[in-house]
Amino acid sequence: MFTGLVESVGKLVGRSGEHIRVRPARRFESPQFGESVAVNGCCLTLERDFPDGTLEFFTLAETLDRTNLGRLPIGSLVNLERALRLGDRLGGHLVSGHIDSVAAVLSFTRCADGDFELVVELPELLAPEVVEKGSIAIDGVSLTVVRVEKGSFAVRLIPVTRAETALAGRTPGTLVNLEGDLIGKYVLRQLALRDGGAAGETERRSGSSISMETLRQAGFL
After folding, report:
1. How confident is residue 220, by pLDDT bands cut at 50, 70 and 90?
2. CA–CA gap between residue 143 and residue 167 (Å, rounded)
3. Where residue 29 sits, what CATH number does that domain have?
4. How many angstroms separate the CA atoms of 43 and 57, rounded?
5. Which of 38, 67, 119, 128 has the fewest CB atoms within 10 Å, measured from its CB?
6. Is 137 helix (H, G, I), strand (E, B) or coil?
7. All residues at 6 or more sequence positions from 114 whose CB lies less than 8 Å from its CB, including other chains
8. Which residues pair with 104 in a beta bridge?
């Protein structure tokens, strides 16, 4: 489990078969064989660390196919976060490290008020989980949704996020990893079970019929 608070940016320095190698900008302290690390939000298992700080991870063909890790060119920057420890502060939101979808960046601009806004394509499958003021992980970074439109959503990046993550280098057309809100997934699942699958069809549409009353009936309120 992760929080979406990036600990270091790393450089993708190698990809060979089912392994990738990443060199963190800040070396990991006492990396442990078998520990979980989120690489661009994707939970991977550390298999080897090298004297120069480079980390090697095993990646299933499924992982490379369903995330941007199999498509990024060598030299690309990725976000890194080690797994949450019991007792740590939960500064972002609960992130499982299981990517739901990849999507293209549509724009990354500076707004009139000085904020930087990142607009990303919203896959239909993920649409029911993305709500204004809700949380989403983009390449492993915990962010708050500021606007949802048909086919897209927007987030704003604070200076620390721009300076300390790889998101500042994402340009239109770049593919990013998306993970929807974990709690939202369970709410949708429970509603689907309660309605005998009817809500499952709602999940596949870009709109959502979830209301305070349906949540109350399902026992969440």
Report:
1. low
2. 11
3. 2.40.30.20
4. 10
5. 119
6. strand
7. none
8. 175
Which residues is 12 bridged to in the sheet?
Answer: 22
Backbone angles phi, psi at 219, to 5 degrees: 90, 10
Q: 111 and 143 share a domain?
A: yes
pLDDT in tens, 152-162: 999 999 999 99
Question: CA separation (Å) from 43 to 30, 112, 192, 205, 216?
Answer: 19, 37, 27, 28, 33
One-letter amino acid for residue 23 of the chain: R
Residue 1 lies in a domain: no
Q: In sequence order, which residues have a C-beta less than 8 Å from that of residue 36 and are 6 or more positions away?
A: 43, 44, 45, 46, 82, 83, 97
Residues in contact with 99: Cβ distance below 8 Å, sequence separation at least 6, in sequence order: 41, 42, 66, 67, 177, 178, 179
Q: What is the spatial distance between Cα 70 and Cα 131, in angstroms, rounded to a whole number? A: 29
Query: 195: domain range?
Result: 182-217
Is the pLDDT assigned to residue 198 strictly greater than 70? no
pLDDT tens digits, one per residue of 11-68: 999 998 889 999 999 999 999 999 999 999 999 999 999 999 999 999 999 999 999 9
Q: What is the pTM of this model?
A: 0.84
Q: How long, in residues, is the chain?
A: 221
